[in-house]
Amino acid sequence: MTLIDFILHIDDHLVTIVNQFGGWSYLILFAIIFIETGVVIFPFLPGDSLIFAASAMAANPKYGLNIWLIYLVVAFAAVLGDTANYEIGAWSTRAGEEHSWFNKLINQNNRLAAEKFFERHGPITIVIGRFIPFIRTFVPFISGGSKMHYGKFIAYNIIGGLLWTGLFTIIGFFFGNIPVVKDHFSMIVIAIILVSVVPIAIVALKKKMSLKSVWEITNP
Questions:
Q1: Following DSSP, what letter does each residue of 64-105 receive, concatenated?
Q2: Residue 65's CB: how many other CB atoms inside 10 A?
Q3: Measured between alpha carbons, how far is 71 from 51 in angstroms, rounded to an integer?
Q4: How far apart are alpha carbons 217 and 220 in whole angstroms?
Q5: Hey, how many other C-beta atoms are within 10 angstroms of the C-beta on 73?
Q6: How far apart are the C-alpha atoms of 168 and 174, rounded to whole Å?
Q7: Neighbours of 93 (CB within 10 A)
Q8: How far apart are CA 155 and CA 148, in angstroms?
Q9: Label partner for 7 (CA 20 to 30 A): which of 98, 202, 216, 220?
Q10: Residues 6+ apart with CB under 8 A from 178
Q11: Can you tell me the distance from the alpha carbon of 167 to that of 10, in angstroms, rounded to the nearest whole number?
């Protein structure tokens, strides 16, 4: 099983996980959401679709999942994950060149996109960024690295975490079992990914155009 297969067919894989692990499935949900939001080198894990799929399963009594417990688990994982990522960002700034190897593990294009997004929108990016894959993993890291006051960060972190997990929990619970949604789940996941990476593509395009303009000015 590849990562791409897991992401595109996460609904099927989640059924297998629940059938095999039962109540321990909540711990697996917690771990995936925590790692995606808390470890800056793992921004590609399927947070949105995972919450959506788990909530859809909770609406079906045969799986024995509790929607409120799912929400509490993923919301706590999201808030705790961002907090850990904030601390990693602060540590990376303090450590400086001593741990330069760590920066080599980070996707610099995604990091740049998150920085530009943060510069444009300010601290509210911590909330907005929750809804954008890749961006949401880098924003708390950048917040810690920029020495944002922790009190301000944690407030936005909690609000963003509750809104993000709440939205996908509600959507999944009420709409995830509609036949057309179930039959085209992979296409929905792809659509979410494509829409979500638009901000990253825009930043990359603007950077390319900016570099081109500078080159044209300096090389008439």
A1: ---HHHHHHHHHHHHHHHHHHHHHHHHHHHHHGGGGHHHHHT
A2: 22
A3: 8
A4: 6
A5: 22
A6: 10
A7: 14
A8: 12
A9: 202
A10: none
A11: 18
Token pair listed for 194: 């494509």
Q: Which of 85, 78, 55, 80 is nearest to 68 (CA)?
A: 55
| Contact assessment for residue 17 and residue 81, using Cβ atoms and an 8 Å cutoff | no
pLDDT at 158: 96
C-alpha to C-alpha distances, 135 to 66, 74, 116, nearest whole angstrom: 29, 18, 10
| C-alpha to C-alpha distance for 76 and 103, rounded to whole angstroms | 27
Closest CA to 132 of 195, 42, 74, 89: 195
CA distance 90 to 84: 10
Mean residue pLDDT of the chain comes to 79
In the block, tokens 């300096």 appear at 218
Cβ pair 96, 155 in contact under 8 A = no
Closest listed residue to residue 6, CA positions, set 40, 69, 53: 53
pLDDT tens digits, 166-184: 999 998 899 877 887 777 7
Separation between Cα atoms, residue 144 and residue 3, nearest integer Å: 29
CB 43 within 8 Å of CB 109? no
